[in-house]
Amino acid sequence: MLTIRAFDTEAGDRFADGEIPGFVHLYIGEEAVGVGTCAALEDDDYIASTHRGHGHCIAKGLDPKYMMAELYGRAEGYCNGKGGSMHIADVDAGMLGANGIVGAGPPMATGAALSIDYQDRDQVAVGFLGDGAVAQGQVHEAINLAATWDLPAIFVVENNHYGEGTPVEKQHNVDNLSDTAQAHDIPGLTVDGMDITAVAEAVGEARARARAGDGPTLVEAETYRYRGHYEGDEEPYRDDDEIERWQDRDAIDSFKRRLIDRGELTAEEFDDLEREVEAEIEAAVEFAQNADPPAPHEAYDDMFAETPPEIERFATAARTTTDGGERIEESRSSSEPRSDGGRSGGERR
Amino acid sequence: MTAQAERELETETETMTVREAVRQALREELERDEDVYLMGEDVGLFGGVLEVTSGLYDEFGAERVRDTPISEAGFMGAATGAAATGTRPVVELMFSDFAGVSMEQIMNQMAKMRYMFGGKAEMPVTVRTTEGGGMGAASQHSGTIHTWIAHFPGLKAVAPGTAASAKGLTKAAIRSNDPVFVFENKMIYEQEGAVPTDEEFTIPLGEAAVEREGEDVTVVATQRLVGESLQTAESLAETGVEAEVIDPRSLYPLDTETIVESVRKTGRLIVADESPLSYGTHAEIIARVQEEAFFSLDAPIQRVGTPDTHMPFSTPLEQEVLPDGDDVREAIERVT
Amino acid sequence: MPRVGLVVNPAAGRDIRRLTGGASVVDDYAKRRVADCVLEGLTAVADPPSVRLMPDRSGIADHVLAEAPDELEAEALEIPLERSAADTRRAAAQFREDGVDAVVVLGGDGTTRDVAVEIGSVPVVSVSTGTNNVVPSAVDGTVAGVAAALVATGTVPAADVVERHGRIEARAETPNGEKRLVALAAAEVSSRSFIGSRALLEPDDLVGGVVSRAHPGDIGLPAVAGALESVSPDDPGGVLLRLTDPEDAPRTARAALAPGVVATVGIESVERIGPDDPVRFAVPDGVVGADGERELELTDATVEFRVRADGPRLVDVDATLSAGSGAGAFALEAADGPPASED
């Protein structure tokens, strides 16, 4: 949770500084959901994430260094600079990707659960979705399929109470989003998403059910995002009092207090931990800042397992014009169009 | 596979319909690889759309020939997730028009995952779907959308015109680690042809076939129009015009070289594809030919396709808009 | 005009017992319908009381007000909302301050407890739409409304048909100071370390506790106690239970520990305790629960329980209706008397 908060705080700052391009959606405030969920999973279980995916990545064990490099668009990022904040993935680590399409996680999780079930593997697949995504048709299709086939899937609804800038009650006629599970005849429950122990316990039970062959479960975790929908959001839709009320129940603070009360953590140890995490994130930023950008010709990599000539011709041309693949900073930052990679007509000789 | 090897494999053949050829391809791949399974609406007990998968449920069981709910977005998404996590789904989308319901899964997930993730996701998924008018199925069950798919980066598209290519392309699609759409024209399921029996027979994606050699005009035809163009070519031969008929088989990747080589020889090109003419498959083939063989052209290139309408229901209306061998003949006559 | 308060807890009945047990889901639509029934029930008396609803952000109260019978004066309370149990407590406090004559609560034990904390001596009709339902009754909303109307209008004197439910006070002494908790039917001690998903999940985790009532028809610890003792909700005092592994226990009991969960519980000791008698549990690492839900995380603590007699005044719905009938509340004379004979 600390790593996520530090990572996203830093990502927000670096975005504000203009170092990180594109969009960033921060997970600050919602840490207990991702961490609680992943704490209840085994290493080789799958998760399919959302556009607000940094927390899920870190909770699943991805390295902040390569995540930050991806946010910076570097070649050493998780996606070699092709994905950015909204598409960080590491399938081998069980992370099926952040996703820029609201509601895309559940079909992905159902698919992973289908593979698991088909090959009789001892895993589960979690599809994260936000409250807004509950209005998406594909979400219900995915839940229906998983439920009908008793697939080992878990759908975790992160109800942060706003779908983009619109409050949940203006987007759904159903108020308790876990009620939607009833339509699919699967268990649906609501837990306190600001309490990591609640989320972990619920997902743990859901995992046991999935592994027993009893099918999917929908877990709604009530939580709150402290930052805007994206960085730069003016937030006209809520007031400071509301934010403060949720911050009073902050997942990190409350868990810290409870651990200290239990004698399992001292305030000094917590401070050390926080410093350690901050150092790790600082190192990640430094790594990302100093990492090489991808060479232009890498734009043509990874379209297919088997690259067709249609793409190969551009790749070849780009490799030639970028000096044999050497990474050239100027070409990335330049607003001038790159030299033409054989795109114009005419017979090629 | 070398052309030599392909020819050797093709030596032993059996006559079967396009439907049987697709079914045989599915059967062989289900037998060859346990990670392969079929899924779609009524592919199981019911036998699939137009009975293509008939019998496979009895042979392979409900786990491997999976009936899905009528939920195109759901099962297309699940197939995408499954392909990324170690299995090889073969999806049947009953009618290509239904891609509309599942397009999000196709364009934003299936097509983009490998690329967005820097190569960290495999995507060995095959989508079989039916296309085309001619049976009075009207606008929502007769469309041709192969241009969309061939156009969209990250997807591969094949469209067999013969029984042999139906088998070879389907098998190649299933064995590919990329998402491949197989567009089956529903009017040629009964069309017979010699199909190689070898279980290793596949047609590499991106290889066109010269179905008939000729010196005077090149006809690039797809799907149903392959057979109709061949018939047209035979009848035109009596008038002294020898048409070369090429089935590209694979729309993306497209075998530009075989087509260009032919046009260099004939100097004339007809592109016949049952799809809307504007911004279409025809245009892509023509663009490539003029890029590579502009100075070899002796006459304006001709297109045969559907006008920019939907497929009407009533037979006279449907026949009006459907391209056929006569349209190909007229196109040839315009330029020879 | 007599007034009735109505609390519908939108969050009741959503916890993990839908997954781990057999608890049913009462969705908002169903709650709304029950609330509609309550309002309809209020019209059973000749001059129905007015009704005020706890507002919510789920739209339940809005819907119910829109559907309210024409002859009823109905409005929503004006209180700030937090989407938490605080809303229920705030509404109950407001009802008490406003001097309503009866309150109908739709929820489970948790909701009734939240109301009880603030409601003072206002008669409470508690209707089950929650999970752990020892205190609320499974009565139809309409009937509950009728009962509330009879009590609120004084057609049936409240004193005749309410019983004072007991409550249990827990006071924990911890290295970090004192912590308090109130339960209505049962205060449990669990060996689980964290509140987690709140519900008491594993029978093995139950160390013991105190109940203010005991009957095999209850759910949870009161059912365990009820296997051996019988204590009515308004009996003074309660039962202290200390549990152990059924394998080593001097005796065991089968009881419904949660909806859909019947388990064998090992009983180390069971004893009746008088009102206000303190009993203690040492909690080296565990959680104290209230009415089936884990509430208070404790380490190196001693927790002291006392059963108090001053819980909520709960309306006995059956008794109220019988009394109402006896008072002639439902048998109306035709307004102009029988039709006159023509001859």
TrEMBL record, chain A:
Tree of life domain: Archaea
UniProt entry keywords in alphabetical sequence: Oxidoreductase, Thiamine pyrophosphate
Residue ranges constituting the Dehydrogenase E1 component domain according to the UniProt record: 3-296
Biological process annotations from GO: pyruvate decarboxylation to acetyl-CoA
Region (Disordered): 314-349
Biased composition (Basic and acidic residues): 324-349
MF annotations from Gene Ontology: pyruvate dehydrogenase (acetyl-transferring) activity
Cofactor(s) named in the record: thiamine diphosphate
UniProt protein name: Dehydrogenase E1 component
UniProtKB/TrEMBL annotation, chain B:
Source organism superkingdom: Archaea
Transketolase-like pyrimidine-binding domain mapped to chain residues: 16-191
Record keyword Amino-acid biosynthesis present: no
Keywords: Oxidoreductase, Thiamine pyrophosphate
InterPro entries, per the entry: THDP-binding, Transketo_C/PFOR_II, Transketolase-like_Pyr-bd, Transketolase_C
Biological processes annotated in GO: organic acid metabolic process; sulfur compound biosynthetic process
Cofactor: thiamine diphosphate
A single GO molecular function term of this UniProt record: oxidoreductase activity
Protein name in the entry: Transketolase
Lineage: Archaea, Methanobacteriati, Methanobacteriota, Stenosarchaea group, Halobacteria
Automatic annotation (TrEMBL), chain C:
One of the GO biological process terms: NADP+ biosynthetic process
One example GO MF annotation: NAD+ kinase activity
Keywords: Kinase, Transferase
Official protein name in the record: ATP-NAD/AcoX kinase
Keyword Lipoprotein belongs to the record: no
Gene3D superfamilies per record: Probable inorganic polyphosphate/atp-NAD kinase, domain 1 (3.40.50.10330)
